[in-house]
Amino acid sequence: MRAAVVVFPGTNRERDMALALKRAAGGRKPAMLWHGDAELPAGLDLVVLPGGFSYGDYLRCGAMAAQSPIMRAVKAFAERGGHVLGVCNGFQTLCEAGLLPGALLRNASLRFLSMDCHMRVERADTPFTSRFQRGQVFRATMAHGDGNYFADDGTLDRLEDTGLVALRYANPQGETPPEANRNGSARNIAGVLSPNLRVLGVMPHPENQVDPMIDGTDGLPLFESMAASLKAA
Amino acid sequence: MADPARAPLLSEDRAAQLAAEFGLKPEEHERALAILGRQPTLTELGLFSVMWSEHCSYKSSRVWLRELPTKASWVIQGPGENAGVIDIGEGLAAVFKMESHNHPSFIEPYQGAATGVGGILRDVFTMGARPVANLNALRFGSPDNPRTKRILDGVVRGIGGYGNCVGVPTVGGEVNFHPAYDGNPLVNAMTVGIARADRIFTAKATGVGNPVVYVGSKTGRDGIHGATMASAEFSADSEELRPTVQVGDPFTEKLLIEACLELMETDAIVAIQDMGAAGLTSSSVEMAGKGGMGIELDLDAVPQRETGMTAYEMMLSESQERMLMVLHPGREAEAERIFRKWELDFAVIGHLTDTGRIVLRHKGAVEADIPLAPLESEAPLYRRPTTETPKQPTLDAAAIPDPAGIEQALLRLVASPDLCSRRWIWDQYDSMVGGQTARRPGAADAAVVRIEDHARALALTTDVTPRYCQADPETGGAQAVAEAWRNITATGARPLAITDNMNFGNPERPEIMGQFAACIRGMAAACAALDFPVVSGNVSLYNETRGPDGTPRAILPTPAIGGVGVLEDVAQAVGLALPPGLDLVLIGETKGWLGQSLWLREIAGREEGAPPPVDLAAERRVGDFVRTQILARAVHACHDCSDGGLLVAVSEMAMASGIGATLLPAPEGTPEHAHWFGEDQARYVLAVPEAAPLLEAARTAGVPAARLGKSGGEALVLSGGRSISIRSLQEAHEATLPALMAEA
């Protein structure tokens, strides 16, 4: 897997993401790309937009990043069938860039939420989730002020009908009561796929649960899935 | 005749009047005039007043701070630089400091707290370290005071807003509530960074002609005379001081961190200093002063956010996210390229000279021309009068009746403001960013943060028990240091060094200065006994407010201690959550000391008596024993006994895992409430597979140890079949802060 991590001014989880990718890719470090670059390096299998506060998030979160030179290249990469993962601020950026539908609003509590959550895997036949079982629940850290997924009912119905909801906030038993959905996301949605299943946006941070010495390895299957799916490519 | 090249000098009357407004005492003003040999310009008077403010000069505290032990073989840099530096092995250094932002946080809680975090981060990355952890120590007024809610909410949002954005995890801290902080909340922020031990940057500027470079944000009119404001007590109209509070921009700080660390990979930098309190004034004076140089600045070149700024305003502005550097000649272009890449301002604003003077030019006139050496050597230094705090009587536990019973007292204690869950606060701080947080808030007695690409980890804590300091400042000072040492020990880490943040009232009152001196005495004894030197620190005085009747009301003496320890392998760390099926053993001696305990305050309604004594030799012996057991992998969970005593400690372990315990009865002769809630020091609760070998090892080591009970079940079970469900404890523990903050 040849992966690259995009760094915007204000990105702050690029190191976490690089460590997770490296761990899953057998020690191979991802390339770090700068927001001002207009082109991606040749031969990439995966582009990752990590978490943080791109451009300070002084406009809507991710709105400025979506207009950056490198995002034109990322969009073209996705249109050619490239794999793109956006986490947290990266998910917000994918929505702002039109690569995924919907938007991330302020958390329902109007407070920053930094805590563990659980997510249920809604489908395990994607390049991002193949090492999970369908219905499997895993733990991840969330750390965001704007993680409240929103789309109009028609869009939500279409996402559900076409199986593009990848992950849902759940309790450890796999049920999806409102208490498990701390940021207030529509239909407990935590992760959304593109129609070709090659772009994934996810709000919590599975990259913080990849190391048994730090906080367990609940998030590791996500990275191992990508490494396995993109190995041959 | 006036010199056309020099800015106008102030008349005698005007200078005296302004000096008083700026907080210079008449004798300090006289001393400034003697150094100059003439009347000052406005800018010069401003420079003297901020450099000689309490905040910048430590004029009331320096004579006492000298008594603190600051040396050990692992200390690379002690007090006097931007932050302390210690060797943590493998060629790595930990760089850390704690600093207060108390006065601004009362006036404008969000920005006050946010810029406190920003300032302490800069102190650490200035020295070449990547910040890896933030902690804080917070004190608020009574929960019943309607202001407390607003201040707590703003401070927590401010710390989170800044720390979360810069991407440095906030991993630990402490919070107390007491009416003594009603008008003077305390916000102490600590940053810990990691650097290569052979790549530490300092503020010592050398090399005549070397360029002086300004980087970061532009200079505006915010925070002018902030250092002076922080050196005065509050009166009823303090909120009118809001324009002296700075505004923070964590996004720019993040860029500044990355740009500075990128430039530090090269060898272009001679010296570097952040612009904190007193901004451009203190950074330029300190850099040139430390190197024994002169410095000449062209203020026209300073990047400015507002038009028409005067030299006085630029020199005293406390605009945030700015740094001053001295570069090797010819390296400007290389440095500028890095800062432009990060979209930050970069300007050569002057050069070093051999005159030993600071010379400031603006719009063709010399605005200031002051010799640097006397600015430091002649700085006021006061040995202010002290009076000893009267000793409190030792309370006889047997003479204090138990009005509530053990179960009710426990439920009330775990829900009390000083002991209730801090989850409402942690849940707003990103504690995981960086991917190295091995023990987050609430998981262990100290936060444990691994060093990237290493097995090695740091154990970090902040501690002080102000009510002990109030009752007996010497014992309280020793206890604060001992508790930090104990919390690090309880994770298995070796405690290495501390930073101190001394928060006190008005030093011109002998009883306050007496508290300060006695706290230092106690701290010094503990630092020496525990090999736990002070490597950096900060002093915040004048934390008091005059009531409507004119009587001053000071905070409790609060010498907050930030402790740093090291674990060779993060896998050695233990947490406090209680696993099932283990033996519980109490290490350390229990006499049932109720004086100044939380039980006495919360349950008996009395704040009195002498605080528990701190036997430093016992502390050392017990702690070294516990650490040895943890590193031998004999211990599955460990928690020290502090606020609330033994039963609260066991409850905290149980609440963390949801696993209960069955406990043996209190020994004959000790009143039950004193046994369970007394706050005797130097004690740890250990969970081990088998008590016998641990008790045997303790006997051999001469350390008091006693079987306490066995873990398991869903309740704490006391003698006589009394039982308290863990769920009811958790509910009481978790409910308090959310209920208090419900409408915030």
- Look at the helices and sheets of chain B and give the structural class: alpha+beta
Distance between the termini of chain A: 7 Å
| Low-confidence segments of chain A | none
Number of strands of chain B: 28
Walkthrough of the structure:
The complex is a heterodimer of chains A (233) and B (744). Chain A has 6 helices and 11 strands. Chain A is of the alpha/beta class. In chain A, strand 1 (3-7), helix 1 (14-24) and strand 2 (31-34) form a beta-alpha-beta unit. In chain A, helix 1 packs across helix 6 (220-229). The N and C termini of chain A lie close together (7 Å). In chain A, the strands form 2 sheets. In chain A, strands 2-1-3-4-11-10-9-6-7 form a 9-stranded mixed β-sheet, sandwiched between helices. In chain A, strands 5-8 form a two-stranded antiparallel ribbon. Chain A has helices at residues 14-24, 63-66, 69-79, 89-96, 153-161, 220-229; strands spanning 3-7, 31-34, 46-49, 83-87, 103-105, 113-121, 137-144, 148-150, 165-170, 189-193, 199-202. Chain B has 744 residues and is α+β, with helices and mostly antiparallel strands. Helix content of chain B is 35%, strand content 23%. Chain B is built from 25 helices and 28 strands. Chain B has a 7-stranded mixed β-sheet. In chain B, helix 8 links the parallel strand 4 and strand 5 (170-177). Chain B is globular and about 90 Å long. The N and C termini of chain B lie far apart (62 Å).
